[in-house]
Every structure is written in C-alpha cells, then in structure tokens.
Specification:
- The structure is a single chain.
- The protein has about 190 residues and is α+β, with helices and mostly antiparallel strands.
- It has two domains: about 80 residues, OB fold (Dihydrolipoamide Acetyltransferase, E2P), CATH 2.40.50; about 70 residues, no CATH class.
- The protein has five helices and seven strands; from the N terminus they run ααββαααβββββ.
- The chain has a five-stranded antiparallel β-sheet with strand order 5-4-3-6-7.
- The longest helix is centred in the middle third of the chain and has 28 residues.
- The relative contact order is 0.12.
C-alpha cells in the first residue's frame, strides 16, 4: 500500500515518492505511463483548442527548449519572442504552426524508438554474463490480455518482461534470466521457483 494523505494532491505526492517499496515502484511506473499519449496542438490568436488542458498537471501547458534543439522550437520561439516584444509573429512561423504537431509527434516517436533500442542493447550486454542467475524484482505493469508482465529489477536497474500469469501489480518476485540476445536487443526472464 502507498500512504496518501487526503489533503495531498497527485502532483505533490508523486514528486515525494521514492521507489523504495514494491508498491511505490509500481505506482511511479504507472504514473509515468499515465503521462504518455499526450499530443501537440496548434492554435492562433487566443483561439484555444477544445481540450487545452494537460491532464497530468490539470492546467494548460506549453514549452519550448533551447533554440534549434528541436525543429518545432525554431517556430515556437519566434512566436514567444514576438509576443514578448508586443508585435505580431512572423508569417512564416505562424503558417508552420498547423503542421508542427504532426512533425513533433513523428520526431518524438523516432526519438523513443532509438532510445528504447539503445537501452535494450545496453541491458542485454550488462546481463549477458548472468544467464541462469536470479534477480529480485517488483511487478510494475500487467497486461493480462497479452499475458505480459513488466518487472523492475532491483540490481541492475533493468526493466524486463515475462508472462503475466499469477502476477499482481506491486508484487515482489524473484526472476531468472533465461536468455540474452544483444544482436536482437532481447533478454528473456521467467519467474524463479
């Protein structure tokens, strides 16, 4: 169980949590997953979209990063600079706004795919000499429809998947590393007896 005082909101409680118990680790994992699926939307002239609220923070939200770190920031920064200077933004920046959400979403998916591939490869290389060994872990996600569970190993800090049968969210388990294939960026775990 995760202690949650009645007078503490979601954002405050999640910021305070540490993954030092199975239940807290599972909750933090689910909280991070809850932020997924957010998208981008463009709007002009204070004409807000139908659903402008970011559900995880319960407010409207916008951000930009350092200039030219991402393509979209080039346009967003021009709009922000113009707003701060109390002048209209350049036409080329405003015209690009409609296409930016789809470009940003595609770029984000490429970034995630590359990051996941790198992490999967490193995890496979770290675990390669440990085939047959057992590891303490906590169940952080269950997809019973696909019979797939996700566990977070305590040491090394690896996220892995295994069949979901018999698992419960937040459960402490011991898993066995059954196989590793760095070329395919795969590790195979099962519940240890």
């Amino acid at each position: 169980d995760v202690d949650w005082p009645d007078d503490v909101g979601y954002a405050e409680r999640v910021r305070e949590l540490r993954p030092d118990t199975p239940a807290r680790a599972a909750l933090l994992s689910q909280a991070a997953r809850g932020l997924r699926g957010a998208g981008y939307v463009a709007f002009r002239d204070h004409d807000l979209p139908a659903e402008p609220t970011h559900s995880a923070i319960a407010s409207t939200y916008a951000h930009v990063t350092a200039p030219l770190r991402r393509l979209c920031d080039r346009f967003a920064n021009e709009v922000v600079i113009a707003h701060c200077a109390d002048r209209p933004p350049p036409g080329w920046a405003v015209e690009a706004l409609e296409e930016l959400p789809s470009l940003m979403g595609a770029a984000r998916e490429r970034d995630r795919s590359l990051e996941r591939a790198v992490i999967d490869f490193v995890e496979a290389m770290v675990l390669r000499p440990h085939v047959g060994e057992r590891f303490d872990a906590v169940v952080t996600d269950l997809d019973t429809a696909r019979d797939r569970g996700r566990v977070q190993l305590h040491d090394p800090a690896v996220v892995a998947h295994l069949p979901a049968r018999g698992l419960t969210l937040g459960q402490r388990v011991t898993v066995r590393l059954d196989g590793v294939d760095p070329d395919r960026r795969r590790v195979e775990f099962s519940l240890a007896d």
